[in-house]
Amino acid sequence: MKLQSTRRIWHSQHHNAFTDLICFKNTYYVAFRTAETHHSINGFLQILSSCNGDDWEESATISLPDSDLRDPKFCLHPDGQLAIHTKQVKQLGELLQHHSLIFRSQDGKLWDQGQPVGEENIWMWRAKWFQGYCYSIGYSRDLTRLYRSTDGVSFNIHKEILFNQGFSNESDWVYLNDGTMVVMLRRDGKDNNSAMLGFGKSDYQEWVWHDLQLRIGGPALLKLSDDYIIAAIRTYTDDNAQTQLYRLNLAEKTLQHLVTLPSSGDCSYAGIIRKDDQVWVSYYSSHEDDSTDIYLAKLQL
Question: In angstroms, how far is CA 251 from the centroid of its own chain?
Answer without folding.
Answer: 24
